[in-house]
Write a structure and sequence with these properties.
Keywords: Membrane, Transmembrane, Transmembrane helix
Radius of gyration: 20 Å
Organism: Ruminiclostridium herbifermentans
Number of strands: 0
Structural class: mainly alpha
Shape: elongated
Number of domains: 1
InterPro entries: SpoIIM, SpoIIM-like
Pfam family, one: SpoIIM
Largest sheet: none
Number of helices: 7
Protein name: Stage II sporulation protein M
């Protein structure tokens, strides 16, 4: 079973390597734009961000943060993304939207990291590297793989729509099963990413905030 899953993933990567690369580049571009966006904040916005982050760190220091609630919120966010990505695969217009959404994900990551480093300075680099980078290493490959999975199905549906051939409908029906299976498979990793975010990242951030205070 594990060998079969590995074979499916290997073939998928080989056949769609340029799509993987394109989505990854959009993510990197999003990070760069997000980091630069921090510099465009005015003094009032920077002050608001500083107060928000300091308030969050205070909650951690006082152990007032409900990690189960944080886990639920992270799960909801992840599975909203999964649901949208899965649904887009059945549409012709889904292809550019995947690139936009992954670029926005990169923007959020770059902006958040920029704010943290701006508020905490050198310690912010350590916080981003220890608390957030491991989670991103889990989430981003899964999100990109889900995007490639959806783009692949969208292209198949588009070609079938252009040709209007009955035999292509059978191919689509076969690919929907693989498409849904891969979506569920990568969703498992996003479940563990939510656990990591709620318990490991927040716990590590708690320790680092105590050291910094």
């Amino acid at each position: 079973m594990i060998h079969k899953i590995g074979r499916v993933i290997q073939v998928n990567i080989k056949e769609n390597k340029y799509t993987f690369l394109g989505l990854f580049l959009f993510y990197i571009l999003g990070i760069i734009l997000g980091a630069f966006a921090v510099n465009d904040l005015d003094l009032q916005q920077q002050d608001d961000m500083t107060k928000y982050l300091n308030g969050f760190l205070k909650l951690l220091n006082n152990n007032e943060l409900n990690r189960m609630s944080l886990f639920k919120m992270s799960m909801i966010d992840n599975f909203k993304t999964i649901a949208v990505f899965w649904a887009l695969g059945f549409t012709v217009i889904g292809i550019p939207i995947y690139y936009i959404m992954i670029g926005m994900k990169g923007f959020t990551t770059g902006f958040s990291s920029g704010v943290i480093m701006g508020v905490l300075g050198v310690k912010g680099i350590m916080v981003s590297a220890i608390c957030f980078l491991p989670k991103e290493i889990i989430i981003i490959p899964c999100i990109i793989a889900l995007g490639v999975n959806g783009i692949r199905l969208s292209r198949t549906i588009f070609r079938a729509w252009i040709k209007k051939a009955n035999k292509d409908e059978n191919i689509i029906a076969q690919k929907i099963g693989t498409y849904s299976f891969l979506t569920i498979f990568f969703s498992i990793f996003l479940f563990f990413a939510a656990l990591f975010d709620a318990y490991i990242s927040s716990g590590t951030l708690n320790i680092l905030s105590r050291i910094a205070s």
